Amino acid sequence: MQYTQFTEEQVGVMLTTIGAKTIDDLFSPIPAAHRLTRPLDLPKGVSELELLRDCESLAGRNYDCTKLTCFLGCGSYDHFVPTIVDSMAGQSEFLTAYTPYQAEASQGILQLFYEFQTMICALTGMEIANASLYEGATAAAEAVMMAAAITKRDRVLVADNVHPDTLAVHAAYDADRKIATTVIASSGGLVDEQSLADALDDGIAAVVIQSPNFFGCVERLDRLIPKIHEHGALAIISTDPLAAGVFKSAGAHGADIVVAEGQPLGIPMQYGGPYLGLLAAREKYLRKMPGRVIGMTTDREGRRAFCLALQTREQHIKRERATSNICTNQGLLAIRAAIHMAALGKRGIAEVSSQCFDKAHYAADAISALDGYSLRFDAPFFKEFVIRTDRDVAAVLDHCRSGGIAAGVALGRFDDRYADCFAVAVTEKRSRTEIDALVSALREA
Amino acid sequence: MSSIASRPAADITKKETATVTVPVSGRPVKGIESASSSQAMSKKPRLQQRDHPVLFELGAPGLSGVSLPPSEVPSVDRAKTIPAELLASELPALPEIGELDVVRHYKRLAHRCFSIDENFYPLGSCTMKYNPRVNERVAALPGFAHLHPYQRESDVQGMLELLYRLRCDLAEIAGLAEVSLQPAAGAHGEMTGLMIIGAYHRHRNEPRKKILVPDTAHGTNPASCATCDRSAMTVRSRPDGRVDLDDLRSKVDTDTAAMMITNPNTVGVFDEGIGDIADILHKAGALLYLDGANMNAILGITRPGDFGVDVMHYNTHKTFSTPHGGGGPGAGPVAVAEKLRPFLPVPQVIKRDDGTFGWDENRPSTIGKVRSFYGQIGVLVRAYAYIRSLGCDGLRDVSEKAVLAANYLAARLGERFTLPIPGPYAHEFITVPIAGDSGVTENDVAKRLLDHGIHPPTMSWPIQHCLMIEPTETESLATLDGFVDAMIEIADEIEHDPEVLRTAPHMTPVKRVDEVAANRRPNVRWRAE
Ligand SMILES: Cc1ncc(COP(=O)(O)O)c(C=O)c1O
């Protein structure tokens, strides 16, 4: 298949205009020694129909979550996505637009991102938000760099019960940056307040805590954040934007920077990406924030207008002194999230949040009442919880899977200490019948 | 505020009215009919010219655009399960709007956008080519779109095979040994590449810190160096845009970790000194990094690995046509030479001896993970579909036609505009549109192009006052000629009517936007009065 549209005759005309004999002449600056003298070792191109056959056959070899009942979580969740999210976000005016550098011709998308920023502030309880980062783990890493720049300190603490990928990204980034990360221990599923107090000193730039954390437990932010502030460190809280319908937001607890994996806001699981990195902060940190920000202003006739604001923070202007190297972001995912939040609205978000909470608790009660299964932690949780079992975890999950149920994520893959545990996530999408079927399958396993 | 309805030449606000009128304040673009007097007298702004409310001005308390089934499970007593200090005391202040009005809102916002699907977008360095519809269909297949990242490997064999094939295809196109699909975008790929370079030198007990970057480099190159705590040292370019080899030689030393280069470079030419550049670096024990933003000019013609590159990133959202989505997502796969393979991120998708596919975590020298899960999978699926569609023959055709289109435009525009760098060009080129003392700036030219329904080229980078023009291979000759006509008309206006440029754009939903005010008094969140 080719998407070019010059006829042979037109090619001739164009070459004449250029003053070249052949297309090959145009490549004359490339030294012969560097030229590829054979075709690329790839199959020849195919028609649209053949492409669809190939891709449908690959897709057909996957057991996707429309064929399974999905209780998998740990950073990616099977939430319900209303039809209008796909149909509105799929408009090609959004899909095939570039970054809205030309404000006059991009008012629609600029306004949309401005509204997105506002709604992210509402969910996180913060004053400002950017127009997206790559995903949750890199958003936390960016927040740490932001905090280091604000506090002019270069050591950070990260709780050991954040998503393991967040820890992994910090470890990898640390090898090449001025910031050094220390991991602080949790106990009983929650950040250990004593370990935190012991690790804090006046050289710490920030503490990264996730709540609900990787185990699904909700942290005592009311007690942790004041401790962090005592040492002049910033509290970076990673959260689930949907928890705001039941739990007090991180912003309301006094967080300085809030980050999140925005996937629960209308983004399909897609085997792990593209997702949506959220970053919100206190207004006084606006000029230190990474990523694009949209502002409201006026046009020269005084009517309301939107544009990219504070671009002097960004790499195309500040180069090595930019707040971040990010350029391409996750615009289309922010568009999805905006439409999702607008469609759900205040009541819809509350309902989704409540149903996640009630259904997860219903499932947790029923599972922990079974012989051989118990709740690993007794901390409060939102939509996800950890089950410990004296049966073989892999065998249990396999048994459920053979009945069409993806029952949970085995935690042994992340940490040997949890080899007898699996995490179960229950979204608003799961019906009582599906939860009851999970409980039966676990009983039989 | 003008009370006269206007409609742009090329559908910037579009569709809601069939009547073509022009604003009295601006001037018509050639070929647009004048307003009839009755329209011009109309008091009310029409349709898309009206200020469009923000979301928070719509709806009424109690409305929602989504309905969920009843919960069916007992409601848990919050007070008994959650400490009072952790309970939300109020609901988040989201809007309350019915479904139809949500749809209308986003429909109207879509009408005020600028997209490849509607308009020519010769934005240099961004490769704004057609995004094939079929790739959207492929990415939306439930077998790809609804997989959870922690499903067991035996349930996702098709997905893993696709990723494995893509990984191999990208290595072949680069002429390099192995590819990681993990990085999220070009800049993230740069960072990953620099981390790999760092690990390589550390492995050899040489903590080299310096990264050389040409003065024409994209802003992300020095910014990525800073993120990795490396100092970026600038290497001069010659007047013809090539790297000044003498300057390079004088700056390469035993502390030099690598040079980051873009080739074809950002002024639009292939640097034929690339072999020498690679030699100079390699002799000093340093590595050569390629910013692959301009791969669209060399697919199947030359390969970075064949001209001395050790590590590079791709931008799938440029070269492989994955849609830009108003700013993202992209993907920035990184390709490396043999000696850098041990340092690639984990997990890596592999084909096992028994023919099954899986994730390999076992790489002792790996730099680790640069993002969560495995990568921008939905984007990578589209890139796979694109590469499969075009194949070895089609990819080469892409570059041939992209280069042909750029050189054709340069030849035609060269009759009227200055081309500071001589050709032949790769897939893009630079022109400086303003001469003389008209007071018109390149920004005025850019804004005037909007009136023609054309997205302005990249401006003022990498050379001051320039426009960087990249037509891509997917445009028709008629579109290219239309662009030349528009540019020539604008050149005439620079000479005879500069005011129309200084006050441009005239045909967009809003007039020139006050970006200075947006920075002086930032308003980045809606606050109810
Ligand atoms: C030459 C060049 N390098 C790097 C980048 C950064 O890539 P990304 O936007 O995918 O992060 C760009 C993007 O515009 C570019 O044009």
**The named CATH superfamily of the largest domain in chain A:** Type I PLP-dependent aspartate aminotransferase-like (Major domain)
| Distance from first to last alpha carbon of chain A | 50 Å
**What's the CATH topology label of the largest domain in chain A?**
Aspartate Aminotransferase, domain 2
Write down the domain tally of chain A.
Answer: 2
The number of domains of chain B: 2
Question: Tell me about the biggest sheet of chain B?
Answer: 7 strands, mixed
Task: Report what the structure shows.
The complex is a heterodimer of chains A (445) and B (529). Chain A is built from 13 helices and 17 strands. In chain A, helix 11 (331-368) packs across helix 13 (432-444). The model of chain A has no long low-confidence stretch (mean pLDDT 97). The longest helix of chain A is centred in the C-terminal third of the chain and has 38 residues, at 331-368. In chain A, 36% of the residues lie in helices and 16% in strands. The two termini of chain A are 50 Å apart. Chain A is globular, with a radius of gyration of 25 Å. Chain A folds into two domains: 69-79 and 345-444, Aspartate Aminotransferase, domain 1 (Alpha-Beta Complex), CATH 3.90.1150.10; 83-341, Type I PLP-dependent aspartate aminotransferase-like (Major domain) (Aspartate Aminotransferase, domain 2, 3-Layer(aba) Sandwich). In chain A, the strands form five sheets. Chain A has a seven-stranded mixed β-sheet, with helices on both faces. In chain A, strands 13-14-17-16 form a four-stranded antiparallel β-sheet, covered by helices on one side. Chain A has 445 residues and is α/β, with parallel strands linked by helices. Chain B is of the alpha/beta class and 529 residues long. Chain B has two domains: 3-49 and 391-514, Aspartate Aminotransferase, domain 1 (Alpha-Beta Complex), CATH 3.90.1150; 147-375, Type I PLP-dependent aspartate aminotransferase-like (Major domain) (Aspartate Aminotransferase, domain 2). Helix content of chain B is 33%, strand content 9%. In chain B, helix 8 links the parallel strand 2 and strand 3. Chain B is globular, with a radius of gyration of 26 Å. Chain B starts with 36 loop residues before the first helix and ends in a 9-residue tail after the last helix. The structure holds pyridoxal-5'-phosphate (PLP). Residues 125-126, 185-187, 218, 220, 262, 266, 291, 293, 315, 330, 332 of chain B line the site of pyridoxal-5'-phosphate.
